[in-house]
Amino acid sequence: MSTMRDTELTIRDDEQRPGNVPADGDGLVFYPTPAKIHARSTPLREPVLRVLALDTTPQASALLMLAVDGDIPKFDLALYPDRPATRPQMLAHLALVQQHAIGAGIPILRVETTGSAEKALHARIREILGFPEPRHVPADVVADLALPASLDTIHLAVGSRVPFLRHTFPLLELGWALGDCQGYLRSRRLDRPGLPGQAR
Question: Which of 100, 56, 110 is nearest to 78 (CA)?
Answer without folding.
Answer: 110
